[in-house]
Amino acid sequence: MRSEAGGRRPENTLTIYEKSREGRRAFVSPELDVPEIPISDLLPSDLLRSEPPELPEISEPEIVRHYNGLSKKNFDLDTGFYPLGSCTMKHNPKLNERVAALPGFSRLHPLQEPQYAQGALELMWRLQRQLSEVAGLPHVSLQPSAGSHGELAGLLLTRAYHEDNGEQRTKVLTPDTAHGTNPATVTMSGYEVVKVGTAEDGGVDLDDLRDKAGDDTACLMLTNPNTLGLFDRNIEEIARIVHDAGATLYYDGANLNAVLGISRPGDMGFDIVHFNLHKTFTQPHGGGGPGAGPIAVSDRIEPYLPRPQVVRREGANGHSEPFFDLDFERPKSIGRLRGFQGNFGVFVRSYAYICSVGGDGLKDVSETAVLNANYLRARLAEPGIAEYLPIAFDRLCMHEFVLSGRGARDKLGIRTLDIAKRLLDHKVHPPTVYFPLLVDEALMIEPTETETKERLDGFADAIREILEEAKEDPEIAKNAPYTTPVRRLDEAAAARHPVVRQARPEAGGRRAEGGAPSATPSPSI
Amino acid sequence: MAEESYPDGLLYHPEHDWAKVDGDTATFGVTWYAQDQLGEVVFYDPPDVGTQVNANSAYAEVESVKAVSDVFAPMSGEVTEVNEALKEAPEKINDDPYGEGWMVRVRLSDPSEADSLMDVNAYKESLGR
Q1: Packed helices A453-472 and A344-379: angle between N→C axes, nearest 10 degrees
Q2: Which of A269, A295, A376, A463 falls 20 to 30 Å from A306 in CA-CA distance?
Q3: What is the pLDDT of residues A180-195, one digit of tens each?
Q4: How far apart are CA A438 and CA A120, in angstroms?
């Protein structure tokens, strides 16, 4: 498909390839002052390209403008409030970046021998100890690279544990409020998902759990506080039921920001915990990574932890100083989960964060996160808002809470999605919408501890304004947003007919002026 | 999207599925309410012909812009036909949930299961309509 002649597209919609012109360069090497050796003399012919790679040819200022322009189209935490429930979009202290950029950390090669990487290994070992203390569980592996990867590790450990005990268990229980990654991980690990219902108070339905926990149950995966922002008061009874059935109890750490230094999953009876360093411990996220999803485990799970483990050896090799090492001697290990030692820069930022706030500071973090959430919950329970966005479970919440947009739908004719889109015009990132699934027209709001009272009030005011405006004219919200780089996206068309690849421009980096990329819709999947 | 409606003559399941019984065969689909809750459907993953489906158990998946959801069988039997057109045009589930949006045809193993399903009035009452 080509656009009509003269239909020149705006510069800010061109891709970097469309801006390419043959021969342009951002950087020119100095003239060669040593003898040139053909690359074919250095590398076997089967490793050489037959054609040069098709890279865009662009001047340096145009590269800078291109990516700077793209970054300005994005909404980020440094731009405004980002109460995306379950994602813990808290401020990421800039100090962490300075620490992570120290050359000893940032320029270390991942294949460096342990004896030349003592500082990095010590940092990892210390971070393991910190996370162990937060979890209340003695052993930590930093290898998993995301929360979902931590979940996979948890179920691989669960399988290894049961098999080592001569048992084949086939089912994993997840509450119907669980994050979608939980059942996805269960299926990916080859287990069968069994859903457990939710009781009147928003916690796990104990009778349903008792019915479903049995000698074929491998594990219960639980988030506490759960995705409704509610702490499950029956957690000790839940742990007892699960352990009596011989299963492991897995803690999805997505909501750990609510309980730091206050309650510990290990004390509640959990066997395996994953952390989201990119949520709770201030690794910047929201752009796709990198993250880190370390796990902490109980003694009975420890033999199966991934290898290598980062360990501290006293007096090794005749050294008087402790030696930090990689321990590969783990015969029952589930093996390696990724290359090298994990996303090391994430470890540095999280370690810097934990050290800078300290143990008491972590408790303050959670107390303030819970206070902020409850303040905003109360503001949104005021008349003029609550009749349109009633709270799903009316209890004190933890770090987040879930409203239902059913009142706005029935009384104003606007949907949760419309409210979310209209919030963009108020320079606020919308909350998580349509999750958890058991809440009709759900809005899941997590303000985090790093927002001011003024910011929270501003959000409540924006919600009130959107609802009042909809009373006058619901079309305003239905057609929002108006002030963003692109207007309302057709998400259904994008999913039904995804165009995931743009055709290459014509050879030589030239293309007709105003030529639109040839976009052949891919077949529906 | 279609206007809200619940035709007479269909049998309804509490998970918002309908069955149209014709002797020992039946056609299954989801109700207007179900497609409204799902939002715009973008993908339909049907069972294979020949699959045994069990009443109250999932037999297919639909993905909307909001979530992936199981579709429950109102009655038990063997799948004899699936609506192939939904693979290319899942939006038919939104546009015509009782017509072109049908999901599977089934040879019933126990036609008496119909007795446990709701008629249109009972289903509407369950929705508060």
Answers
A1: 60
A2: A269
A3: 899 999 999 999 999 9
A4: 45
Closest Cα in chain B, distance from residue A437 (Å): 8
Instruction: Tell whether domain A358-478 is in CATH 3.40.50.10260.
Output: no
Residue closest to A374 by CA, chosen among A393, A355, A396: A396
* For testing contact with chain A, the best of B16, B37, B42 (most A CBs within 10 A): B42
- Residue A213 pLDDT > 80: yes
- Check residue A8 and give its pLDDT: 73
Kindly state the helix (H) or strand (E) to which residue B126 belongs, with its residue range.
Answer: helix B120-126
From CA A40, how far away is CA A63, in angstroms rounded? 31
The pTM for the full model equals: 0.88
* ipTM of this complex prediction, to 2 decimal places: 0.80
Domain that holds residue B57: 11-110
Could you give the percent of chain A with pLDDT greater than 70?
A: 94
| Among A478, A491, A497, A525, the residue to mutate for chain B (most B Cβ within 10 A) | A491
Q: How many domains does chain B have?
A: 1
* Closest residue, chain B, to A491 (C-alpha): B65
- How is domain A96-354 classified at the CATH fold level? Aspartate Aminotransferase; domain 2 (3.40.640)
A211 C-beta neighbours (distance < 10 Å), count? 11
Q: Tell me which residue of A521, A362, A385, A368 sits closest to A460, measured CA to CA.
A: A385
Beta partners for residue A272, in sequence order = A250, A297
The chain A residue lying nearest B94, using CA atoms, is A492
For A328, other C-beta atoms within 10 Å of its C-beta total: 10
| CA proximity to A165, closest of A294, A271, A324, A301 | A301
Q: Is B6 a member of any domain?
A: no
Mean pLDDT estimate for chain A: 92
Chain B touched by A490 (CB under 8 Å): no
Reference B74, options B38, B93, B102; nearest CA is: B102
In A, which residues are within 8 Å of B39 by CB distance?
434, 492
The rounded distance, in Å, linking the Cα atoms of A438 and A228 is 10
Q: Are strands B52-53 and A295-297 parallel, antiparallel or unpaired?
A: unpaired
pLDDT, one tens digit per residue, over A140-165 is 999 999 999 999 999 999 999 999 99
Bridge partners of B26, per DSSP, are: B21, B106
